[in-house]
């Protein structure tokens, strides 16, 4: 699973222009956190899973720090750009 997520991360980073790479990293970190969190509702919580959840939250917070005050329209444009570039 880690290899798949890492491969997706690399693909996203190479698909994005350098100025958008950080935003694409932010999107990826959010997706990883959401995927992991949704799986926790169907599983028993363990110390390892709690630690992984905290790690993913911190990674998202770090990756998305520059976008906390960004306007919705600008963020939607960057998101669309990242999504479009990963399709190509």
Could you describe the 3D structure shown?
It is a single chain. The protein is mainly α. The protein has one domain. Helix content is 80%, strand content 0%. It is built from 4 helices and no strands. Helix 2 packs antiparallel against helix 3. The model has no long low-confidence stretch (mean pLDDT 82).
Mind telling me the C-alpha Rg?
Answer: 14 Å
Low-confidence stretches: none
**What is the helix fraction of residues, given as a range?**
over 70%
Largest sheet: none
Strand portion: under 5%
The gross shape turns out to be elongated
Distance N to C terminus: 24 Å
Count of the separate structural domains: 1
The pLDDT mean sits at 82
Structural class: mainly alpha
Q: What is the ordering of alpha helices and beta strands?
A: HHHH
Please count the helical segments: 4
Give the beta-strand count.
Answer: 0
Summarize this, please?
By secondary structure, this protein is an all-alpha fold. It has helices spanning 2-15, 18-40, 47-63, 72-87.
Keywords for this entry:
elongated, 80% helix, 88 residues, mainly alpha
Question: How are the secondary structure elements laid out?
Answer:
Layout: H1 2-15, H2 18-40, H3 47-63, H4 72-87
Helix pairs in contact: 1-2, 2-3, 2-4
